[in-house]
Amino acid sequence: MLSPDALKKIDEAVAKYPSDQKQSAVMAALTIAQDEKGWLSVETMDFVAQYLEMPPIAVYEVASFYTMYDLKPVGRHKLTVCTNLPCALQGATLAAKHLKDRLGIDFNETTPDGRITLKEGECMGACGDAPVFLHNNKRMLCAMSPERLDQLLKDLD
Question: What is the pLDDT averaged over residues 16-33?
Answer without folding.
Answer: 97
